[in-house]
Write a structure and sequence with these properties.
By secondary structure, the chain is α+β, with helices and mostly antiparallel strands. It has 36 helices and 34 strands.
Length: 949
């Protein structure tokens, strides 16, 4: 019998027994605890889950976690069942909430409770059952109790289990076998997503909104309300202190809600503030009380605690607390993973409060605008980096051996990498002590529910011994400390917290100011003292360096013990990506970087991530892993940093992805792993999927080479070399820029031309060799925030336009007066005839080269980036020779003929005309391709490779 047939027979017996005694089981006297033991446990055991832990005996490595009924106020603390898949016992695959059979499951309270667990944990569906029925509920939508009954996807009656077809549906959704094959993800993917019009009309049950998107939105609203209330009461407040005040307030409210939901604090402070007539006064009293108990940056005395600070109006503050209070809020901080809070804060920190004389507004930070937004690292990538650095270093080590290891993120942001490092350390210690119970008792663990548990003092020691971080943003440092404190307290209770507080007379949170530091990882204090080596360091219009803004620091001064022992053992992270140009970085800083960092020599395009790589290597880690732009692998501008990497350490891994990893970003990414002591001579090239799965693509013996051609197909390497041989890089022949970046462009463009309008060119306006004016706009009306606008007031400037989207080159020639948007790249040149160049760029050969060598074409929506275009190899003709002059003329004649035929095709009136012109264009296209093959001297066999024959 198959596994599903065996399961069916087992469940059939349960159903028959339940049916025979249905009256007894549906009576109010039959409890939830009984139905769980008698039926629900057995049901999931039948589906292949190790409910009774017959195989998974280690309490820290069990796929099914069954909770006892613990209530906080009127709310249950945790779901009855949480299901995981080994070896990942951290992330919940799905929850099951159990009720007794006499209860009607279709009620708002039970739905809200069940969906709240799943939504907060980031699962997409959840299950509510009393065995008599199973309800499948949608967790993709922010819980709203007024419409919560509409969140039901499907329900089954226990009699349905006897129907083999319906039971098969249940088995291939909920069994361990099915879940291991991503059944839940596939099921969720098949569900309809609400569309904009349906939401507006109210015909859909809610808005699809993940926990991080919803909570970020709420935090933004709280910040806006608080900033306005603070400014109204204290008109003198300026932007920076106002930003800091609102940040500290939000941190406190989030931390208090966390303490409440984790049942570390028995009181519900936030709801009490909401109902108080003196909310601000009560908040200040609570802050002082909690500061005495917890310590740490969160409740530390701040200007908002000062008597000179005029409190905001009670109504505004009470309303904020009312919406965030446990009785009203959809957020359950006992369930929200700490790393998700980190992702929310990372984006939250991208904005600041801007105060004018009478008003406040919220704006993106200038550096965030320049970088194109905040790109939070997805957790599966953080997991990979931490597991392959910190995870490898602690493997097989005792707690005593681990205590001397030092791990850092030198651009820590909101602390996502450090949270995960701390998590892995705690996980390792728990498992080690579980296997070594005698030492567990000696080291201060306590035994509870069949497992050895780390004491709060032990966790404090791990945190302060092993974890270090630096960030330039003071708010980011504060949030990192907050996140680490939340992780520290994650498994504590009122009892354990009280024991530490009363028995040891110690505050519950350690001081992290010596571990998580606000400073500049790239700039030392030498910038404050010009010398013969740095004579130019004046800056700020020659008035001197703004020390408070720059925050220079020396690692030797800030982390003296770490540096004396030789540096960090592992450095991980996602360093900032920012082009180092004069319009972004002050000139004196560019000079400073040029003097201090070798990676800036050579190449024209420089980026901040290069400096972070070099700095991290200088800090002497045993292992170093960052996620950085894919440009690291191929561009000449990164050749020097590649050389530094392979000279100082061994490149063991390079990882690409199945899609773009950063939401709303069009930048390809890669992870590198450097290991100082690795014995492996080859570099493994892997592909990491968003599911966390890993695929080994190939192994390369790069040695000390700086040519990291890891994206291309090895089989075609000889052909790639031939195409490159004797060619000139495109960037050396043309001037290239992107079109105008227009704020809210949809507001300004029209499909009909008005007086004084100019054609507005988008990527969608062009196909190969042909463009069509579809949109128009007035130049004076546009809000242009970047890009090139040289073609507005001038005419007859020959140029090529290249579409950014797609995985084949799409290029047109233009001389018209037009507005060109940033979805197009603009090429001009005095070194090469653009009609000759367009023939090469639009050819099959160039798209083949781009796909093989420069674009992985796997990271989601295909994009062609400017640095990739820079690397295209262009073969030139020597026009001093008649035969090459003739080839050049033939190229241009064919291109002109193709462009003209395309124009005729667009206005053709009859089918016969269209058919003839289509054939003509196809023939000319092939002729141009053939000329390109001859130009690059390809053989018939090589042409077949290019054309995929």
């Amino acid at each position: 019998m198959s596994s599903s047939e065996i399961a069916y027979e087992k469940v059939k017996r349960l159903v028959e027994h339940f049916s025979a005694n249905e009256k007894q089981f549906l009576s109010p006297d039959y409890s939830e605890a009984s139905v769980r033991t008698d039926y629900i446990d057995k049901f999931f055991d039948s589906l292949g889950w190790d409910v009774y832990h017959n195989e998974q005996r280690n309490p820290y490595e069990q796929e099914v976690k069954i909770e006892k009924g613990v209530y906080v106020g009127k709310q249950q603390k945790r779901a009855d069942y949480a299901f995981h898949l080994a070896p990942n016992f951290r992330d919940v695959k799905f929850y099951v909430e159990a009720k007794k059979p006499s209860r009607n499951l279709s009620n708002a309270d039970d739905y809200f409770q069940s969906i709240r667990y799943g939504w907060n944990a980031g699962t997409q569906i959840t299950f509510l059952t009393d065995f008599e029925e199973i309800h499948i509920l949608d967790c993709r939508i922010k819980p709203d109790i007024s419409s919560i009954l509409n969140y039901k996807i499907k329900k089954y009656h226990y009699s349905d289990f006897l129907n083999e077809e319906k039971f098969s549906e249940i088995y291939w959704l909920l069994s361990r076998e099915a879940v291991a094959n991503n059944s839940l993800e596939k099921f969720a993917e098949s569900l309809p997503k609400p569309k904009g019009k349906a939401i507006k009309k109210g015909t859909h049950r809610g808005t699809y909104q993940s926990i991080d998107e919803a909570f970020l939105e709420e935090l933004d609203e709280i910040r806006d309300s608080l900033a306005k209330a603070f400014k109204k009461a204290n008109p003198h407040l300026e932007s920076e202190p106002l930003t800091e005040m609102t940040q500290r307030m939000i941190d406190r409210l989030v931390f208090i809600r966390f303490l409440e939901d984790k049942q570390i604090e028995p009181d519900h402070y936030v709801s009490e503030f909401a109902n108080s007539k003196s909310a601000w006064k009560d908040f200040k009293i609570a802050s002082r009380k909690l500061d005495a108990k917890y310590n740490g940056v969160v409740f530390k005395k701040h200007s908002i605690d000062s008597d000179n600070f005029i409190e905001p109006d009670n109504k505004t503050f009470s309303l904020i607390c009312e919406e965030l209070a446990h009785i009203n809020s959809p957020y359950n901080f006992d369930v929200i993973p700490i790393h998700i809070l980190g992702s929310i804060y990372e984006r939250f920190l991208g904005k600041v409060v801007i105060a004018t004389d009478k008003r406040v507004r919220i704006e993106e930070k200038p550096e965030v605008r320049k970088a194109g937004g905040v790109y939070y690292t997805p957790q599966y990538i953080v997991n990979y980096i931490v597991d392959n650095t910190v995870g490898k270093l602690i493997e097989g080590k005792t707690p005593k051996e681990i205590s001397s290891l030092k791990f850092a993120d030198i651009s820590c942001g909101s602390g996502s990498f450090l949270i995960t490092v701390f998590d892995r350390l705690l996980e390792h210690h728990r498992k080690w002590y579980q296997d070594n119970p005698e030492q567990a008792k000696k080291d201060g663990c306590y035994f509870q529910d069949g497992r050895w548990v780390l004491s709060l003092k032990q966790k404090q020691k791990i945190l302060t011994n092993n974890i270090y971080g630096v960030d330039l943003d003071h708010q980011a440092v504060e949030v990192t400390q907050l996140s680490l404190y939340l992780k520290l307290l994650e498994d504590e209770t009122t009892a354990t917290a009280q024991d530490t507080w009363v028995m040891f007379k110690e505050q519950l949170l350690p001081n992290l100011n010596n571990n998580i530091v606000c400073g500049n990882s790239l700039i030392g204090t030498d910038i404050l003292n010009p010398t013969s080596i740095l004579p130019f360091v004046k800056g700020e219009d020659e008035g001197g360096v703004d020390e408070l803004k720059l925050k220079p620091m020396n690692f030797e001064d800030v982390f003296p013990q770490v540096m004396r022992k030789g540096g960090f053992d592992a450095i991980v992270g996602n360093p900032p990506y920012l082009k180092l140009t004069k319009n972004v970085i002050p000139e004196y800083l560019l000079k400073y970087y040029g003097t201090k960092y070798k990676s800036l020599s050579g190449g024209s395009s420089k980026n901040l991530f290069q400096l972070f790589i070099e700095k991290a290597i200088l800090l002497c880690p045993n292992k170093l892993s960052f996620i950085v732009p894919e440009a690291l692998l191929t561009t000449s501008s990164n050749a020097e940093v590649r050389r530094i990497m392979v000279e100082k350490m061994k490149l063991t891994d390079l990882v690409t992805f199945d899609k773009f990893v950063f939401k709303d970003a069009v930048i390809g990414s890669t992870i590198f792993l450097l290991d100082k002591e690795s014995k492996h001579t080859k570099t493994k090239v892997k592909k990491l999927f968003s599911t966390g799965e890993l695929e080994l693509i190939k192994e390369l013996d790069l040695g000390k080479s700086t040519d990291w051609n890891v994206l291309g197909n090895i089989e075609n390497e000889a052909l790639m070399n031939k195409i490159e041989s004797g060619s000139v890089l495109l960037k050396n022949l043309v001037a290239m820029s992107k079109g105008m970046v227009v704020q809210d462009r949809k507001e300004f463009i029209h499909t009909e031309r008005r007086q004084d309008d100019l054609p507005f060119m988008l990527g969608s306006s062009i196909t190969r060799y042909f463009y069509e004016y579809k949109y128009y706009a007035k130049y004076t009306e546009l809000e242009i925030i970047g890009g090139t606008r040289n073609f507005v007031k001038q005419t007859s400037i020959p140029r090529l336009l290249i579409r950014r989207t797609g995985n084949v080159l799409c290029v047109v020639y233009s001389e018209q007066k037009e507005l060109i948007e940033s979805t197009l790249y603009i090429l001009t040149s005095v070194k090469i005839d653009l009609k000759f160049l367009i023939g090469i760029l639009n050819s099959k050969l160039m798209s083949f080269y781009l796909q093989q060598k420069l674009i992985t074409n796997a990271q989601g929506f295909p994009q062609i980036l400017m640095w990739q275009l820079d690397q295209l190899p262009i073969r030139l003709l020597n026009l001093d020779y008649d035969i090459e002059q003739q080839s050049h003329n033939q190229f241009i004649a064919n291109v002109n003929q193709f462009i003209e035929s395309q124009k005729q095709l667009q206005i053709a009136k009859t089918e016969s005309e269209k058919e003839y012109l289509e054939k003509k264009c196809s023939i000319i296209d092939k002729q141009i391709d053939q000329l390109v093959y001859e130009l690059y001297r390809l053989t018939e066999e090589e042409i077949k490779i290019v054309e995929g024959i």
